[in-house]
Write a structure and sequence with these properties.
Elements (H helix, E strand, L loop, with lengths): L1 H10 L17 H21 L1 H26 L4 H32 L1 H23 L3 H45 L1 H11 L5 H40 L4 H11 L6 H16 L4 H25 L8 H15 L1 H20 L4 H7 L9 H4 L1 H11 L1
Subcellular location: Cell membrane
InterPro entries: AI-2E-like (IPR002549)
Family: Belongs to the autoinducer-2 exporter (AI-2E) (TC 2.A.86) family.
Length: 388
Amino acid sequence: MGLFFKSRKHEAAAPELPEWLTARDGFPFYIKAPMVLIGLYLFFYILNLLQEIIVPFAFAGLISILLNPIYNRFQKWKFNKIVAIVLTIFLAILVVAGIMFFLSSQIVQFGDMIPQLEKKAIKLLASLQEWLSTTFGISTEKQMSMLDEAVNNSKNYVGRTVTTVFGVISYFVLIPLYIFLLLFYKPLILNFVFEVFDEDNSEQVAEILQETKGAVQSYIVGLMIETSIIAALNSIALLILGVQYALLLGVIGAILNLIPYIGGIIAIALPVLISFITKDGFSTPLLIVAAYTVIQFLDNNIIVPRVVSSKVSVNALISILVVLLGGTLWGVSGMFLSIPFVAVLKIIFDRIDELKPWGKLLGDTMPEDPPAQVVNPREADKEHQSLL
């Protein structure tokens, strides 16, 4: 009997764990998952810690890929290697300097109108205080205390902005230096990438590198063309509506539009705010919102698909997530770098069999035959019953 009950007790033991919870490589899932999370946390912590080094290097990498055809053209013309690199960087600096000169000239005109803007802002603030007092019963003293708190917070923000400005100035020194070194040591870097992998994978590595270079180049060139078109459309719309500083606001709006989904909202807010201060009534702000909405529609449905001819398409959900994550990690720089970074990841994922599902998740191509049991279980049940 003892043996009988012992065997029965053994049979009533706990059921086997699912396969995904078992230890395939020595560690069970509930140990591997925290290890992966800790590893991701340390990875992003290091990225945030080394922001001042990684961000300018990442920008330099993208710009060097963009400038690589110009550098190759100088080398075909039998220029010395160092001379070709210097001329390439000099041309890029000339383009950036031209844009900065245009913006600075517009900002100077904007500065001449600051006293007038201050008077109108004070008048609007007084009207707002009176409306808040009569509508919501918020006393003037309480409003002033809330305003003082907002001013103190803005001072802290200005301090961070000044720090960012000095960081940008340092980038103007680091980025050209990184671009020079990346172009100079390009054969060494490419040779290292090929030697890291087996010779059997050399063709696949070459394909990934070639497609990455083409995707980044087409993406950046497309963005530059798109930005020029949006700047022209914004400026024309604001000029027709009679908004002051139309050229400046149109160009700034086009630059902000480079930040997917979020920059467009800020781009609309700026001219609306200026129109509130410089004009009476609500007709002009409403017309600005309408004009920018039409421009955004044209941008998303016509300009981007035809002009930004990137070879890699990232779906809207992933785009918003990575832009927000990039902003949290590296601020505005992270927002700009997030989309090219994910595009490069998608190229790599699409070329590795184990990672192809992740590449499909990042893309915007819908599956032709998704599992009906998950996507539309009712239709799957009907098909099953009809077969019975």
